[in-house]
Amino acid sequence: MAKSEDLPRRATLKEVAKAAGVSLASASYAINGAGSVGEATREHILKVAAELGYRPNQSAKAMKTGKTGAIGLILPDLTNPFFPSLAQVVIQAARAHGYSVFLTDTEGSAEAEERAVNLMIDHGVDGVIWFPIADDGPVGKLIEGVPTVVLDRNLPGYDVIQADYADGGRLAAEHLLAAGHVNIGVISGPHAASSARQRAEAAISAVRERGNLVWHVHNAYSLDLEPEVTKALESRTATAVITGADLIAIGAMRHIRSMGLVVPDDVSVVGFDDIPWAQLHTPALTTIDMPVEDMAAAAVEALIRRMSARGEPRRRVVFNVELISRDSVRFLA
Amino acid sequence: MAKSEDLPRRATLKEVAKAAGVSLASASYAINGAGSVGEATREHILKVAAELGYRPNQSAKAMKTGKTGAIGLILPDLTNPFFPSLAQVVIQAARAHGYSVFLTDTEGSAEAEERAVNLMIDHGVDGVIWFPIADDGPVGKLIEGVPTVVLDRNLPGYDVIQADYADGGRLAAEHLLAAGHVNIGVISGPHAASSARQRAEAAISAVRERGNLVWHVHNAYSLDLEPEVTKALESRTATAVITGADLIAIGAMRHIRSMGLVVPDDVSVVGFDDIPWAQLHTPALTTIDMPVEDMAAAAVEALIRRMSARGEPRRRVVFNVELISRDSVRFLA
DNA sequence: CGCTGCCCATGAAAGGTTTCACGTCCTGGC
DNA sequence: GCCAGGACGTGAAACCTTTCATGGGCAGCG
């Protein structure tokens, strides 16, 4: 590689205009395909611009138009494999529309979320896709004024993309009941997340209908289990457990194994999310699949619509979920 | 949430200045802590600014200063669990320095990489952290002029952050040899990546010294194995295989299992990277750990230095790697 | 008491772009 | 052969900030 010339300064529009022998305005119109420019002139300007390697200065453009061409993506935790796939699709979809994405990871903490969002807004994003950490929190305020679509939570006033969590919870419960399980435990996600509550509530009411809910505990979206959870597991009262996330399911399976029991023979487990590990795990995890890619794409689409039509009524899109039956559930005779 | 007021227009510096009864210049100086402003005036201006909820317009600032406060992070594939951890640390470290990060995923394709980089540069980043897909490719050109640090590859002319791949390869081989293995196969990463070549070469030469290299094939950084690779595995000539990445190792173990064999009893496997799955897998994967977090932090640090001191000679930092012995290697009597 | 010099504070330019309002020239209709 | 109007092109303002060059006032020194 050549050593970087210290001043390969990029050509400015003014220079292009001069080189092409036209006015600044014409150059701008030609390059943006707006205004009225004769066919020949336009081509000439374009040619000159190409020769000079002209690249519009986005900062200047942003200053005039107020649009930066960037969107923000606020995610709780990249370390949870659920999110990278989401991020990947958002990034690709955004790029397809000419947007770059600012990604931020809020480390599961509300202050970090706040700092992150602040920084993002200061840096000027045209819109935000937000996967909230909790249902409340200070962040909503900050985002006000920036077109936003919310993932996972049904926050009032925002465009929302969700999966049918209640249905997922029900599906999981019914799968276990149909497999002959009666004594069922539930490890749901954090209290603060309404989506976690929905999964749990639906599962619980389905369990209660035809079976027996032996316990219900909470855990963060993490492999590491809280004492409350390990205690529940160690009570050995449940032959099957429904978890609020695959990560929790895997953590639970790990703990169950460490107790000297085997999944699914001694305890059955069902997850939620269908992260990539789910099928790689031994035993492969029975779980609820949600169409992450579709949801991510829908989020971008919704955001793009929202950015150009701020007045429209909010929309809420709910995606169907599906139970994927693998090897972590035992079918009792 | 209240319906978004359509025009909560953010206060401008001019407005702050007027409200505070000072000049534009004083306001700017006060807020940036530069120039000379009397203590009392400064405080007053700051107070007024806070009241008005003033937030500097970064686009305008960027236009003046040429600094956007954003850095770009170019990663091959978020779906490979190696990268999210990297991204997470980069994002956090960058934020700690007041930078937002544009993340882009190049989907493993060189054109996508090029498009992504273009978009990023257009959107104006002050610096780039780049994990190249291949050693060559057109992208280097684009990046010219933007301070850049390169991860993983020793690209001439750039600041470089690497791990000691050769040592990793050697460690893996010696571990297997010490465990009594003689016939060893190698599945290395893609040809195009010099880091993959280094790992493989070191492993191969160590194997050859005291054992027997039965085959050497290549595979993308993916769970899915190419025909060449499955054929090698099916030849059953190796009692142990060294892989260029944990993802490949896991793919290989899956295939080995599907052949009716068991890891490590029939075939031993060692990975590279120590991604989170490695220890969750059954059997837990013996692998080479590289300090991703440290490397990510070092990359940000190097970039920050480079951005403020463009002239300095390039630096190359090489991190040590370490073999983590788990359950995927059988110790022969 | 006058002057030098410092501390504060200010006006104005500059940075690259978009876009409004306007002018010129040519075409076509009558 | 005239005029209306369209097509094409242009000058200049505006976006919001940073920063240079400048100026006023006051303290302290000689």
Summarize the helices and strands and which ones pair or pack.
The structure is a homodimer of 333-residue chains.
Chain A lengths: L12 H8 L3 H9 L6 H14 L5 H8 L4 E6 L6 H15 L3 E6 L4 H13 L4 E4 L8 H5 L4 E4 L7 E5 L1 H14 L4 E6 L5 H17 L1 E7 L8 H8 L5 E4 L2 H13 L9 E3 L5 H5 L6 E3 L2 H17 L7 E4 L2 E3 L9
Parallel strand pairs in A: 1-2, 1-3, 3-4, 4-5, 5-11, 6-7, 6-8, 8-9
Antiparallel strand pairs in A: 10-12
Helix pairs in contact in A: 1-2, 1-3, 2-3, 5-13, 8-9
Chain A binds a DNA duplex (30 and 30 nucleotides) through α2 and α4.
Structure description:
The structure is a homodimer of 333-residue chains. The first copy, chain A, is α/β, with parallel strands linked by helices and 333 residues long. Chain A folds into three domains: 13-56, 434 Repressor (Amino-terminal Domain) (Orthogonal Bundle), CATH 1.10.260.40; 70-163 and 292-321, Response regulator (Rossmann fold), CATH 3.40.50.2300; 165-290, Rossmann fold. In chain A, 44% of the residues lie in helices and 17% in strands. Chain A has 13 helices and twelve strands. In chain A, the strands form three sheets. The first copy, chain A, has a six-stranded parallel β-sheet with strand order 2-1-3-4-5-11, sandwiched between helices. In chain A, strands 7-6-8-9 form a four-stranded parallel β-sheet, with helices on both faces. In chain A, helix 5 (82-96) links the parallel strand 1 and strand 2 (100-105). The N and C termini of chain A lie far apart (69 Å). At the A-B interface, helix 4, helix 5, strand 2, helix 6 and helix 12 of A face helix 4, helix 5, strand 2, helix 6 and helix 12 of B. Chain A binds a DNA duplex (30 and 30 nucleotides) through helix 2 and helix 4.
